User: Fold these one by one.
Assistant:
Number 1:
Amino acid sequence: MPRTADTLPSLRELLTTAVEAVGGTERPGQVTMAEAVHKSIRTGEHLAVQAGTGTGKSLAYLVPAVRHAIETGRTVVVSTATIALQRQLVDRDLPRLAKALKASIGREPTFAILKGRRNYLCLHRLDTGAPEEPDDGGLFDPFAVSALGRHVKRLFEWSSETETGDRDELVPGVTDQAWRQVSVSAKECLGKDKCPFGTDCFAELARAEAGRADLVVTNHALLAIDALQGYQVLPEHDVVIIDEAHELVDRVTSVATAELTAGMVSAAVKRCGRQIAEDIVDRLEEASEGIKEIFDDLPQGRLDDLPRALQGVLTVTRDAAHSCITALGPDRSSQDVESTTARRQAIALLEEIHDTSVRVLEAFDADTGQRRDVVWLSSDMIGGNPRPPALRVAPLGVAGLLRERLFGECTTILTSATLTLGGSFDALARQWGLPVEQRPAQKAEGTATDIAPPADNDAPHWSGIDVGSPFTHEKSGILYVARHLPPPGRDGLQPAFFDELEGLVNAAGGRTLGLFSSMRAARQAADELRERLDFPILCQGEDSTSLLVSKFAEDEATCLFGTLSLWQGVDVPGSSLQLVVVDRIPFPRPDDPLASARQRAVEARGGNGFLTVAATHAALLLAQGAGRLLRSNDDKGVVAILDSRLATARYGGFLRASLPPFWTTYDQSVVRGALARLNS
């Protein structure tokens, strides 16, 4: 039963109880954030909170969320970008919090984790077998086929042991291709009432548990699916808290991206089988052959215009898929389970093919500056081998979707250690669909309500606050910009770069995390420094990332070099990490189809596409990378940016303002001396 506000302890009392129970100490930033979140939930005004590492932001939003759930009887949704944070919340933070608050609120708060249906083992598919899968090129490799068989066998054995059917609980994991053999999408699912395994369905059991919980932990992808789909996925809720909010736009964009391949159409032909007339299926098979021929002939990259040959084959594919869907007819309750399953599997893939074809054809209807989608052709690599070409279509922006389906539906709190870029929330607020007024980020003195909401009454009202960090960045860290180095070129790392890197790593005694803009650069640097230095140097890709990070943390002399996932995924407090090196400002690649199209769209509307897209992308990654240095109060060290443009280019000020407030120097001898003293 819900409790009224006056019978519940105050937020401050609950926060104090929670902090004491977990053995921590209350921090000013944590208290300020908790009060701001509490205020946002009460008033319905959306809130963006930047909370630096060590603030204790999880408790700062979980405590007011629990209080709201207990008071109103309504579920609160907490969304994260990474599995690691999900596991931290569900396995550590929430169990301890629930026990700590039980006496104060009269019962133990309940919580559950909910993921998309594809993340759960499907007992029916396990029993009946998977349909024909789109070919990704791996089936031509006999080693891949035997590995697939081993993985599927493991999954069968695991199915009799697991209580949740949650893929993330299977350690070690299996390939995506193996998992697809035992899972289904929402469209392929028969539904609880029709499926012979409906009462034991892992996905349905997870949804039922989530529906009864005070707090539901999910991920940004499922949050996006809930917003995009015409049916409800998450339990009824009036508040959503988005942690790792700097990842929200990319995760939503990924969910809203569709692709089309010849293999998909070929697989749809096989799924149709004998369910419909042969002449109708033949038209779809001809479309598959046409797609393969056209895709092989087209150059890869962004498509600014729709080639006539591609338009023709997409039109044929669209019409053939529609004919097959019509021939399969409506779902009939009289059909047996086997027939219903075959029909659902065929329809799911046919609808995907049809809808993607329509979307690509319509993407070119508007003028360049007014288009909503970007289309490109690409071929990914799997195990060093290229996949067959895929045609992809993605939204140029998701601001409208988020504004209508997220901020328009419930009170939303967004938080991360990196939300203010260039000293303001504006860059990310634009991407989220929130109105901006070119105001600087408010430094926490009271609560987020210190900032007046925008004057636009039709727009979502929101406020932003930076509650700071418990770390004294200017005393604990140095930002070194190698202003004397030549700007990075296109031909790989230059000799001067290796000389600079060698001197820094030597002074630090190893203890270096190297963050590179590409795997090519990371490998090049690792190979070169192994020739020059005696310190162990690990490079991403030589083993699993988690194992490499563990080895790096265990040995102070070890260095770890890598690319994107290390910019955001390394948490190594202590003396094993005292130097973070960034090879170059991480702008998106000039040939990145989505980033380049977004930049062009901004410019078509009279804006600064470079600052809005490329510089914002770089600022966010730089802030995340620099955040690897200080992970505890005792940490000290250097962030070294070996790209002189950070000091010399006009946009350098915006990028530097996005970084933590380290003491800054351009003097090589000063920074080497500081590292040597730390190492002594």
Number 2:
Amino acid sequence: MLGTALGPHSTGQTTVTSLAVANPGSLIQSVDWVAIAPPLIAALAALAVLVTDLFLPARHKKWLGRLTAAGLALALISLLPLTGGSPRATFCAQNVTGATDNAGCSYVADHFALVFQLLALGGALIAALLSAHTVDDEKLPGGEYWFLLLASATGAALLPASRDLATLVIALEVASLPAFALVALRRDGRGAEAALKFFLSSVTATAVMLLGIGFVYAASGSLHLGAVATGLEQAPAQLKPLAEAGAVLTLVGFAFKVAAVPFHFWVPDTYTGAPLPVAGYLSVVGKAAGLAGLALATTIAFRPYAHTWGLALAVLAAVTMTVGNVGALRQRFDTRFSAVRLLAWSSVGQAGYLLVPLAAAGYAPTATDPLGATAAYALIYGVVNLGAFGVVAAVGRRAGTSVDDFRGLFARDRWTALALAFFLLCLAGLPPGVIGLFGKVVVFRAAVDAGLGWLAVVMAVNVVVALYYYLLWTARLFTPAEETEAAPAPERRLPVSLTATLGLTASAAVVLSVAPQLVLQVVGGSLF
């Protein structure tokens, strides 16, 4: 009977186990639809684009891009009801060992999740605006392109709110698998080669991460992040080596998404072979997804090993920023696609800066304090880096994508040149790009406060080194073009979507430079 409690009942010599429960209604999950609205709306928009593409005539395919932008904008708006209140959780398991508050829930819409969802969905929206002309100019399959972009954005929005290792892996793969296809949509040898390198390296990293998760589950007995931390603290001594190895292997997959050394080698070739908007999307949204996963895994699940992963991330940050900046210094300016490759190496160096507060979280009394610095810098980097990719796309329509093609840009198009100069100065951390300087100071302070003085010194040296190639590129914009150079292609009017992208990113960078406290308000307080 339904009212019978779960338990064994003896009938003669046979023991019968009743599968009934005292309160069957407790088995029914109550889904908080408002909490899951951001990734859910992006997923529904992806399905809408996929179905609409089947019935839409070829001459009306442009509406798919508008539908994509509208879906992402609606997903961003759905973040508003989640702000200002207590965290909302759903998909919660009953009686999770060690669970406190929302520790037994698989999806938690807290401040941390909202900040990174803002970055993921906002970056995807800017990438969608940047993609509108690229789909037409390069004759990319529109339906597939917009569906894949929305699908990847769905995974990137789901990942920051995930609170168990299984959901983290699923979200990471949902963000990554469509990205492979996006890179390969360009129908030439470069696109296929870039996608293959991206795919093989990502699959390897994912396999290693899954092995690590298996080790962690065996040692802790749970997949929920909070329960994993409790399980690791109470694990028998003979399981400690297994747990430590599992923690290291689990972080590999997220380190790949962040493009941390030695998982960075795919970046320059993939960015060069992919359509420019896809490269910009990977540099911001893909990196944001990896950072969110890395932060959740370290500060919650692997909290008992804080000093171990804190030191490991500190070394990783130092090596990553150094390799990225040295690679950018070695990049020749006269080669084809050198502007894209320079931004690719720059993104590797910036990944090193982003890892600094995560390393500091391993030494801070409260692990969530330095995470605000990572979130602040990620928001700043996302705006200016997507803006830089937008300018490269604009110049590529008229001239080319080598750095030397930007020579004399101020004389040809002063507003585009000024926008790129401002973006580069923000990345370098120089006035008038105050917001870039502000971001670097926040990250530098996180390292100093955590007692990582040596890492702060390495970061300061790398910032000075990076000034060279950022300023050299900026100087090209105002250098008169050589008379021996070929005449530039006739000026082409920029598409409305591309103009909107440049205007949006430049305006956001200027506003944040004037009022950097806006970023502090977004990431202020406890992220968890």
Number 3:
Amino acid sequence: MIRKATLLAVLSAALLVPSTVAAAPGAAAASAAARQGIDLTLTSVTPDYATERATEIKITGTVRNSGSVATPGLRVRVRYSSQRFADRAAMAAYADDTTTATQPPNVSTQSSMVISELAASASQDFELTMTPAQFGLTSFGAYPLAVEVVQWDAVQLASQRTFLTYAPATGQQQPVRNRLALVLPVIDQPRRSDDGTFVDDELGAELTGKGRLADLARIAEISPSSVTWVVDPALFDDVQAMTKPFRVKTGDGKPEERPADAAASQWLVGMRAALADNPVIATPYADPDVTALAHRGLDRQPGRALELAAKKAALIKSDVSTSTYWPVGGMLDADALDLLAVGAPGATRVGKVLLDPASLPTQQAASAATVLPAVTPDAATTLDTVMGPVTALVADAELSHVLEPTPGTRGSILLSRQRFIAETAMISVEPGQTRARSLVMAPSRRWNPSPTLVSTLLKTAGKLPWLSLTPLDSIKVPRDRVPRAGLTYSDRDRKQELSGKYLEPVREVAAQAQLAAEVTGQQQSSFDAAVLRLASSAWRGDTKAGRAVTEQVSEAVKDRIGKVSITGAGPDQPRTLAGSDGEVPISVKNELSTPVSLYVDVKSDDPGLLETHLPQLEPLQIDGEQSGTVQIPMTVTSSGGGDASVTVQLRTADGRAYGEPVKLIVRTTGYTGIALVIVGGALTVMLAAVVTRILRRRSQRRVARAARTRESEAI
């Protein structure tokens, strides 16, 4: 009843208003209920742009009544302006504003269609035609255009804004053919903890059906060779691991064995074939958050990521470049840029960076605090680093947004195409342009692509006379480039980085993994790839998941370190030291398949009872799956004897602790002092016995001699 009463009030007011007058401001509230029930969708605008004043422009679409009651007295009509946009900032303001106050002021009396009544849940297709002459268009440029649905020619129930491009073949200002580099990313979040275990089974779903990575493969198949692709080698590394039997960590934390995934093999084969003729740029391995690493002192990881990227890029094709870096969000500061410019010993250093315009604004835009300058600058410029100048390529924000229309927008593919045509046309006739400029168009790195939209834009770009698609690496720095304000990196950008709290455990895992490598004589850790996956920019919005993966990698590193250990430790396995000094053997077991080299550091926890001395000048060398023993000199410092505790710590050549320290019990007997007393007493007794025997024998001899003497005298 309330809805009907509202509708009657609106109709009564409408009858008192002339048909050519737009809805009065007071009618907005009264028509709210009716407006919610009408949906307007544009399905086509042909041709892409008009070249003659008599060119017939056709617009088709659908009006749908999503309400529960029939709506009478509808008209679909066109609103327009004969004044072209002054600049791209005006275009952006028009597209973003949906109020009736900023809609095109003129209503076409020729381009309209009446719908006497639209039943509930019913739809009605429409077709409107017009010409530039009817709209009074006279010069090359982009013009505002809108299609609206009104009731009784008074109340606007729905409206859709778009752009109309007029490009006459002759005129005072002819467009310049600018170069456009389209950059499309194939970047995902890391899917493995260590090299052998996947953290979930979501990657398989992304590779098939309507999965995001499956869509990217479809786009790659249709893209011309001029399109540049930016790929993360870690993604291809993950997919490659799925082409063989692999493990997935399940909900209960136990890894589950999975057979080789046929879809992974198919995706890899398809992407390799599709990208064979296209320029391909590799991100550093696992797309690490380089700015966060630079600010938190993890300076080694960016260079290592470049090394691994160059190595793993062979999974894609042989000629993948690693010399161009695209930071997350397009934002970069001088510290991170210097790290990338230095690179790693023997690895290709970064010589180009792809940035967002907010990271490197023009001087005019920086002073005016706006993103869109009055004139679109060339994409290429230079930046200074500790290694000399590098090339900076700045993506165009408005063009890039065209690739990612607002989700759920009806007719978004058509609207994106019309915006793309208008934007590029507007750039080509900006004041002061005398030569072609370079433009870069790139969506966000983990975008959710629409193959239909990308295909449409590629086809459209190939037909526009003011545009030429070109590879990213063909863009050169012009001599007359627009001055830029230098790298801009705000506090807000810093807050979006991976935090120090998140990266501290990553730093510890990296340090322990490096120790595990060094004791085997290797400079690079087998966990480097896993550590870089922990530092991926993908965890910026999901640090909880990143911490869970960090814990898994930490456990794997601890398990690796634990394979070289002190044996025979524990209170029930005491070592015995008999005497005041001696040597106690300490054994080290190597369960790894490779030899290890390390030092054994022993300290007495009870120096009042026991002291240790270990002048170990050479490391202990232990072959794979073998044990080694070190004899530790020890001295008893108390005559009472007893159990003493010593701490044994394995160390690297530079003195860093390897693994956890181990407590050993050494039992000192105190036998030495007692033994001296016993031996001394025994010697005394023995000497006394010997003397007694000698004296007895002498006495016996004297008695015998005396007897013989008496016998001789008696005779």
Number 4:
Amino acid sequence: MRKLRSLLLLTLAAVLVVTLAACGKSATKTSSQKQTLNLSTTAPLDTIDISKATGYGQTGNVFESFYRLGKDGKTTPGLAKSGKVSKDGKTWTFTLRNAKWSNGDKITAQDFVYSWRRTLAPKTKSTYAYLFSGIKNADQVNAGKLSPDKIGIKALNSKTVQIQLDKPIAYFKVLMAYPLFGPQNQKVVDKYGKKYGTNSKYMVYSGPFKIQNWNGTGNKWQFVKNNQYWDKKVVKLSKIKYTVVSSPTTGLELYQQGKLDLTPLSNEQVKHYKGNKEFQQYPYSYVGYLKYNFKDANQTKRKAMSNKDIRLAISLAIDRQQLTKKVLGDGSDTPTGFVASGLAKDPKTGVDFAKQQAVPNTVDYNVKLAKQHWQKGLKALGTKNVTLTITASNDDPTSNPITQYMKSELQQDLPGFKLNIRNVPGQVANQEVLKGDFDLSLSGWGADFNDPISFLQIPETGTAYNSGKYSNPAYDKLIKQAQNRDANNADKRWNDLVKAAKLFNADQGMTPLYQQVTSYLQKPSVKGVIHNTAGTQWSYKYAYMK
């Protein structure tokens, strides 16, 4: 239940998310000027239509759902003043608070029903429609097999929304903090027709802020405080000014001139500013990894990658400390396994899932053990040489350093191994990988919500994003248990997921390389920003300028 992204897109998204989401409050002209935040973004907003968005970092502060994300990925009050779930975990009932759209219209239960039906209608072509999977009839509606009015959501009255699930969804509450699941005003959609969401004036907003002076293509726009917002009294920022800045060098110059309050840093800039008191790092639940093609058209290559010893040898020959600290040099962390750290904690002990998933001698740097596995794998294959090609996106500036490092390291430590590099445009790379036209792929995944399943559903047999065609019946069984039999038992479900992650990590079905951390310079006057590792990562509801 998540969306595959190229390394480039995630790098841009990390910047975009940080730089696109705030606004504020003003009492006098002086305080208004003081409570203005100046941020940059790498590209113009593509859409502000939540049904058609390709990400919600930039809109998470202008649109609100039943909940919001607070600190540490915890749900906090949103448009719902209360929510309850049935004992079987399949029926959720939300009671809405007295809230209004930015134009003064009341936000009603029917606004949620309309929004969900609009998003799931096949003609909408929602990129994120898959996140509705598990809600009654959602998959069939999105596939065009049922009409939109068959989805499991209804308005019991103007203030009560009832949602029916096909099965319990353990992370449903967190999911309901996603702007994707928020309401839409049908009157406004009908009024503007095709213009809806193409300009900031052709939209109404339900969150702490609203957008001004955005025309769909411009390089400057503002977010301002939404004075109709139900919790407006806590919002301190009055305005945030956005400017498109494509180069980190230009961004740094503007920051030094006092024209930006926050700016992302390139790898080289990180090395120079790491000791600066204004240096900040924000982790993201994005893991870059090596994907194997278990259905490679070349039988010889397929046999090599299907050999567990070959995969373990490759993983153990990679020095992730050197990769993250020297090759990348941007603050990225070394992963313990396929699931990112800082994403979710054990409901009983509070221990990070990433710590529990760790399997010794899988992602460690151990050349001696790597050589042993390599020789064992070569013997099983009946060969002394293995040649593979790694496909990567040349749009991403980190791809070439990573692939060049891997080529040098692997060919040095694994006798008889030759790694060819194929750097192509990101769109081409993604298309080839999705079609299964690759040997190895430099890929990555960022969680859409704070739950391990956001990563662990990828390797299931037959899933859309399992383009390497990894398949393990024991793994599938554990994920199925977690999502069905044990879905309503937090502890049992967690244990299922830990076992599945350990199995996958021991198997090296995909080989994790690094976890992304994005570095910035941030003015000391910027306070109260809430950052999360997944979903709507940045919240400026409580942000202010000191």
